[in-house]
């Protein structure tokens, strides 16, 4: 069953606004990954996190591996129209090798 | 590198028909996986392979078969298509080791009527 809770499920924002989304679980994770999916395409890796407390940036995107190892956050600063899409968190649970995915956050930007 | 490629892009099947979804990668990745994506469900693992000749079941394997005769190819077979298998299918690959950074193909949109 679903082991990751991703929120919010959808966001409607104005261009230029900052965006925050997160994933939480009752399980301890060894890895957190954040993907973006454009319409009609496969997910593309944005950021990978491997240590509790790790904070990593990729341009206007910043993601953090939560200290408890049960959550992760993705922030997008100064959103632009090309940020539209579905964002997925994914991770590997301690003791397992397979990736589990969140349900996704659909981001819509009003120009 | 072409990365991960999938064919076909779109497919319509009738209930009971069989078909094979093709997946290939040219990055010499040992790990390959098949996922299905349904609205509100995220990505769910169907089958995966840790190397040529080795496959294992994921979260939702029923109704699907896989084989891995080469490092490059990982086809997914639907033996007898059912409407519940209407979905978007993604193939992914990654390097061995602990990075878990998967690279996805463009997907196959399958409709079973």
Characterise the protein shown here.
The complex is a heterodimer of chains A (111) and B (113). Chain A is mainly β and 111 residues long. Chain A is 0% helix and 56% strand. Chain A is built from no helices and 11 strands. Chain A has strands spanning 5-7, 10-14, 19-24, 29-37, 44-49, 55-58, 61-65, 71-76, 85-93, 99-101, 105-110. In chain A, strand 4 (29-37) and strand 5 form a beta hairpin. The N and C termini of chain A lie far apart (38 Å). The relative contact order of chain A is 0.33. The model of chain A has no long low-confidence stretch (mean pLDDT 92). With 113 residues, chain B is mostly beta strands. Chain B has strands at 4-7, 10-13, 19-25, 31-38, 42-51, 54-57, 64-66, 76-78, 87-94, 103-104, 108-112. The relative contact order of chain B is 0.33. At the A-B interface, strand 4, strand 5 and strand 9 of A face strand 5 and strand 10 of B.
Number of strands of chain B: 11
What portion of residues of chain A is helical?
Answer: under 10%
Oligomer: heterodimer
- How far apart, in Å, are the first and last alpha carbons of chain B? 36 Å
Using only C-alpha atoms, the radius of gyration of chain A works out to 13 Å
* Model regions low in confidence, pLDDT < 50 over at least 5 residues of chain B: none
Count of alpha/pi helices of chain B? 0
| Largest two-chain interface | A-B, 25 and 22 residues
Order of helices and strands of chain B: EEEEEEEEEEE
Q: What is the arithmetic mean of pLDDT of chain B?
A: 93
The end-to-end span of chain A amounts to: 38 Å
Residue stretches of chain A low in confidence (pLDDT < 50, at least 5 long) are none
What is the gyration radius of chain B calculated from CA atoms? 13 Å
Beta-strand content of chain A: over 45%
The string of secondary-structure elements of chain A, in order, is EEEEEEEEEEE
Structural class of chain B: mainly beta
* Structural class by sheet pairing and helices of chain A: mainly beta
Largest sheet report of chain A: 6 strands, mixed
Portion of residues in beta strands of chain B equals: over 45%
How many strand elements of chain A? 11
Q: What's the rounded overall pLDDT mean of chain A?
A: 92
């Amino acid at each position: 069953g679903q082991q990751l809770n991703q929120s919010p499920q959808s966001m409607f924002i104005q261009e230029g606004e900052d965006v925050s989304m997160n994933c939480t679980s009752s399980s301890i994770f060894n890895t957190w990954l954040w993907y973006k999916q454009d319409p009609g395409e496969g997910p593309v890796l944005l950021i990978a996190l491997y240590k509790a407390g790790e904070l990593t940036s990729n341009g206007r995107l910043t993601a953090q591996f939560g200290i408890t190892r049960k959550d992760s956050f993705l922030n997008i600063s100064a959103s632009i129209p090309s940020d539209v899409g579905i964002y997925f968190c994914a991770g590997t649970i301690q003791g397992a090798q397979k990736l589990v995915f969140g349900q996704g956050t659909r981001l819509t930007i009003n120009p | 590198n072409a990365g991960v490629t999938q064919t076909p892009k779109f497919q319509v099947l009738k209930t009971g028909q069989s078909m094979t979804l093709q997946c290939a990668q040219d990055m010499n990745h040992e790990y390959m996986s098949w996922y299905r994506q349904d609205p509100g469900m995220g990505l769910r693992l169907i089958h995966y392979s840790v190397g040529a000749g080795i496959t294992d079941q994921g979260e939702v394997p029923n109704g699907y078969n896989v084989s891995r005769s080469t490092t490059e190819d990982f086809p997914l077979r639907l033996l007898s298509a059912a409407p519940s298998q209407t979905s978007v299918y993604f193939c992914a690959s990654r390097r061995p080791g602990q990075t878990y950074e998967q690279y996805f193909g463009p997907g196959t949109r399958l409709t079973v009527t």
